[in-house]
Every structure is written in C-alpha cells, then in structure tokens.
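Hypothesis: this fold can be encoded by more than one sequence.
Test: take the structure tokens below, design a sequence, compare later.
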C-alpha cells in the first residue's frame, strides 16, 4: 500500500461518495451520527476547488426506495453543487470503482492519492477505501469527520450499533492497513500550500 506521506496532495482527488437525498427517505436521517458532516465536507470541497484539484461526486442507485433511477431523491444534497468539469458518476456497487469509469478519470488526471468522504462510513466509503488501496495501490486519506453513518440494528431486533461506534470501528480497521485517518484541518493545511 502506498502511504499518503509519500504522495503529495497535488496528486490527489477528493471523492464525495453518495451524499444524496436518498438517505433522507424515512426516519434514517434524524438518527445520523455526525452532526458536523455537511460543514466539514463543504470545507473540504471548497479547499479542493481553491487548490485547483479534482472533486468527483457519486450517486448510488439500487432497488431500495429513494435509490431507484426514477426516484426524485436520487440527487446530490442541496449543499453540494458540482462545478463545471466535476463529474457526477452513478454507481451500482458499494465501491466507487467497479461500476464506474473512476479509474480512467483518475489515471487521466495523474491522481495517485484519494481523499474519501461521504455516506455511509462503513459501507460505500470504507469499501472504496479498501479497493483503492488494496486493489489499485492508491494512497488513501479517510476523513471520518466528513463521512456519515446511521445506527445498525442487530438481527436479534434488540441491540443496535450506534453511528459513533460504527465510525470508531471503521477507523480501527482502516488505519495503517488501507488508509491514513485524516482530519479536515490536516488536509486543509496541506491544500493551502498548493499554488494554482
């Protein structure tokens, strides 16, 4: 695995995974964990744009309500507005590579380092980080504070894993194996050193 310390921020891209209104269907959004999610993600998007580096958005589609291609919720949340040249890729798999042309886009831009953000922490974000590092050899920054998750019910119907515990567990399994756990402040500081 390539560690981010060896790959400069200038060779990175920001992945904004599945930040879509689909997650607002039902009561799930009210039970989300990271209440600073939107402001943290917005700060990273603005910093990437200011540095002139790639921002790539994703939408996830499947058969669930709100995620179907014809559902009005299958759109980016209002606080995200892609600018010209920023792709919005539609995927049908948990990782952002298998059902999109992400790899070709990254190769075309000379990207070797990925900053992973979005929804859900332990599903599409974690899976993308693992595939990026383990299959394709990208250096990966996983920004937990710019991801979002929800409670996961146990099959017994009594217990559940809270979103904070889901995020903590994700950091444990990724750190040093598949990704560096990075903060928004750390990345913004790196991005401020980039001259456009």
């Amino acid at each position: 695995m390539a560690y981010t310390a060896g790959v400069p921020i200038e060779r990175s891209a920001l992945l904004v995974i599945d930040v879509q209104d689909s997650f607002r269907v039902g009561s799930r959004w009210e039970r989300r964990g990271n209440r600073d999610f939107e402001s943290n993600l917005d700060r990273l998007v603005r910093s990437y744009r200011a540095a002139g580096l790639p921002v790539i958005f994703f939408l996830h589609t499947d058969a669930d309500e709100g995620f179907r291609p014809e559902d009005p919720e299958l759109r980016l949340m209002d606080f995200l507005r892609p600018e010209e040249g920023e792709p919005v890729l539609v995927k049908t798999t948990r990782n952002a590579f298998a059902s999109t042309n992400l790899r070709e886009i990254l190769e075309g831009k000379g990207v070797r380092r990925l900053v992973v953000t979005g929804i859900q922490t332990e599903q599409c974000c974690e899976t993308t980080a693992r595939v990026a590092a383990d299959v394709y050899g990208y250096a990966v920054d996983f920004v937990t504070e710019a991801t979002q998750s929800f409670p996961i019910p146990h099959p017994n119907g009594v217990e559940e894993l809270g979103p904070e515990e889901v995020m903590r567990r994700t950091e444990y399994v990724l750190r040093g194996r598949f990704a560096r756990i990075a903060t928004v402040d750390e990345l913004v500081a790196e991005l401020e050193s980039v001259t456009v």
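The beta strands are 12-17, 55-60, 88-91, 113-119, 139-148, 152-153, 160-161, 180-181. The chain has a mean pLDDT of 95.
Hypothesis status: open.
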